[in-house]
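[job 0412] stage=complex_fold ligand=protoporphyrin IX containing FE status=START
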Amino acid sequence: MAVLDATGVLAAVLAALLVVGPFAMISCTNGPTMGALWWSRRRQSYWSERGVPTPPSLPFVGSIWPVMTGRKSFAQHLYDIADHFREHGYCGMYSGVQRTLLVFDPEMAKQILCKDFGSFHDRGFPTSDSDPLSQHLISLSGSKWRNLRNRLSPTFTSGKLKLMFPLMRDVGDQLNATMAKEAHKAGGEVVHSKEAQKADGEVDLSALLHRYTVDMIGSIAFGINCNCLVDENAEFLAMSRGVFTTTPAQFLRFMLMAIHPKLGSLLPFKLVFSKVHRFFLDLMRSTVEHREKHEVVRNDFVDIMMQARDKDHGDPDNNIALTTEVMAAQGFIFFVAGLDNVSNTVAYVVHRMAQDPALQQRVADEVLAVINKHAGEVTYEGLKEMDLVDRVLQEGLRLWSPGGLAMRKCNKTTMVGDVLVEKDTNVMIVSHCMHKNPAIFPDPERFDPERHTAEARQQRHPYAFIPFGEGPRVCLAERFALLEMKLALVMLVRDFEFARGPRFEASPAVDTKAFFPRPVNGFLVRVQNRG
Ligand code: HEM
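[job 0412] stage=complex_fold status=DONE, emitting structure tokens
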């Protein structure tokens, strides 16, 4: 979300000055400053007064200074705090003067995400009528969220996924074809002969799989061919990068929102670039017009939204009208939630297998045996039979941790474990911390798909491994994401072998400024034809 560079740091400094500056200026006139400092300190003593451990905090800024200065991503900073208090199962922190409870105990997570969902049904993200792309499932609250979620839930049922699978497989075939070309370009000569392979033959899997996910969401969510796997300069690819890019002004708004939501939403610009904003609105408008005019039925996400729109009625306070803008917001959030998460998890898994030829061979054996059984085809049913493929992806989700946080805002004071969580407290379930807890996953940095057998799952708390969140607000597209990742992995492993090349990084550096984990130099692996 927040990609921060030198200009971003400038914005962070501006944000800090904006918050601290006025008080500093008043300091010349002392009395009010002392009052403001006292007020800030008072708010920041909330957790210690209740015996909840917290990291150190700065007046007005709270515990998020490393994020404001761009030294750490928001998620990484939270992971580090949670790790420090791991034995405790929870801790407090402050964003500005706003209190947040971090939870990394499976039983408390279960209570918040599921048992007491009625007290924690929102994430507390602001939405605004003047910013139509903000009105999506991730941000909406209360009955409007419930109403929309109920109407969009049928998008990814098993029946719908089976209908979509031929479209998905077309994108998978294209991934396979583009991998062959990319490896050839890189000097691998994979298509022709193993012997002809030159010294490097490396391909950046992160970039390639990003193109795959854009094409997949374009096809499934918008019913269009984005052509990113075929054409590196496709417009959609530029737009998808725009989704993850933040200007200093937008970063300023983001930081102000972290300090206080009302401060951020007062600013007169939107969270995403206006060019990107217009692109998604125009795309949804033209797609809907085309379908209405030509009576196209495609059984995809746009169809589901159009059918739901035609049934719109009832109390506007509880109902969200599916205008073209609101539909565009849902398509937009698929782009935010469904690209890097998926592409980098698959890339990470292949990268791990490049370091473990025996595991890679076992995965390939399973893939080839199941494809053989299904008359040489990659089928929906066949993918469901691939147990080891499933487990290596689960292990990738655990270690790469693309969805390491589930956010909630308490809407009704509730006792959680031994902590009284008062209304308006922000709550973050730090699943990443549970996924790396040696008491739950011994030797946690080891890549071991055996952790995900049915027996192993039965032996741990059901909320100890929750890469897609849990409860009524669990990831809407969990089944789709798993199928999409499986398909990509199968299409790669079926025809190619992966190994360490000259630029291989065993532990790739992760971008400290990206919201979702992202490798700074991509995932470079050497590729050759499967012999
Ligand atoms: C590896 C891939 C993915 C991971 C790890 C992931 C993870 C998550 C997590 C942790 C949440 C929050 C759950 C909670 O608060 O309890 C979430 C929510 C969501 N995800 Fe995903 N996700 C993935 C892929 C996708 C894809 C491909 C899409 C869309 C096509 C998507 C759409 C959504 C939506 C719309 C929500 C909000 C649900 C709601 O609030 O009702 N996700 N996801």
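The pocket of protoporphyrin IX containing FE is lined by residues 113, 137-138, 149, 333-334, 337-338, 341-342, 345, 397, 402-403, 406, 467-470, 473-477, 480-481 (CB under 6 Å).
[job 0412] exit 0
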